[in-house]
Design a protein that fits this description.
The chain has one domain (about 5-270). It contains nine helices and ten strands. The protein has helices at about 5-25, 95-105, 120-125, 140-145, 175-190, 195-210, 215, 220-230, 240-260, and strands spanning about 30, 50-60, 60-65, 80-85, 110-115, 135-140, 150-155, 165, 170, 265-270. It starts with 6 loop residues before the first helix and ends with a strand.
Length: about 270
């Protein structure tokens, strides 16, 4: 059963709600700059703050409502439950790329899947600024490497404390936003937390290792387009050449990650 909204709408609403919620929190909460709108909403790049890259692969599930549904009755699943597919290995290397990305960016890479059952529920969640809270977060490492060409799914439902990986049924862990948020704060306040320029450079190197040679060769063209877009922004919050360069670097890496890996990259910063 289709749930009435699109993956694009979900990804945008998730990101916008995440940014809107964090920007209104008190000092000490992570700040997620709105790179989707290219630094035009007043985000102040702060080079010295502890930072962290986050990579999200958005998934729009089906809602399984019939008792004849595949996977009903497996490991505690009962209708209604949600199900989304993992990209088949013979069609795309996306999952295993995400796995490699997370090995280099531990705790920063997630499949993120919706829980709003209908378009009305989705609209209500969006208006409440809660789409990122009404979602589950699954680390690719909990799934592991996929070596066959079968179609695999992740199934989950309200009230079940774990998700189910099929077609070889096994329980896998998922997280809520509160857990992800707490872990980020702990890492960004720990000794040795990296500043923004270090995080961006590390993210750039990691992403470039994983994308295709064609994407790597296109970096110069992408950078030119990003620079042109930044130049078109009239009043922007960036006040120095260093901040402008960092903003450009972030947008370049974000674009390469989006096109080359199918993930949305955000930067979290912790206001100390």
């Amino acid at each position: 059963m289709k749930i009435g909204y699109t993956e694009f709408s979900y990804g945008f609403a998730f990101t916008e709600n995440l940014i809107r919620a964090s920007s209104s929190k008190l000092k000490g909460a992570p700040i997620f700059p709105n790179l989707l709108q290219e630094a035009s909403l007043g985000y102040d790049v702060k080079l010295s703050l502890p930072s962290c890259s986050l990579f999200f692969q958005f998934k729009l599930p089906e809602r399984m409502v019939r008792k004849t549904a595949e996977h009903h009755g497996i490991l505690g699943l009962s209708v209604p439950f949600f199900r989304f597919p993992i990209m088949r290995r013979d069609l795309s290397g996306q999952h295993n790329c995400l796995l490699e990305l997370e090995k280099k960016q531990r705790g920063n890479v997630y499949y993120v899947a919706a829980e709003a059952e209908t378009l009305t529920d989705f609209d209500t969640s969006y208006l409440a600024g809660a789409v990122h809270k009404q979602s589950i977060y699954i680390s690719p490492l909990t799934i592991g490497k996929i070596i066959d060409n079968e179609q695999h799914y992740i199934c989950y439902q309200d009230g079940l404390s774990y998700a189910v990986f099929c077609s070889n049924p096994q329980e896998i862990a998922y997280r809520r936003f509160g857990e992800v948020n707490s872990e980020l704060q702990e890492r960004m306040t720990a000794d040795g937390a990296q500043a923004l320029d270090q995080v961006v450079a590390s993210s750039h190197d990691t992403v470039m290792e994983l994308v295709s040679p064609q994407m790597r060769s296109a970096e110069g063209q992408i950078r030119q387009r990003v620079r042109a877009r930044l130049d078109m922004i009239g009043e922007r919050p960036i006040r120095s050449a260093g901040e402008l360069q960092i903003a450009e670097d972030i947008l370049v890496v974000q674009e390469i990650a989006r096109v080359g890996l199918g993930v949305e990259m955000l930067i979290a910063q912790f206001e100390t």
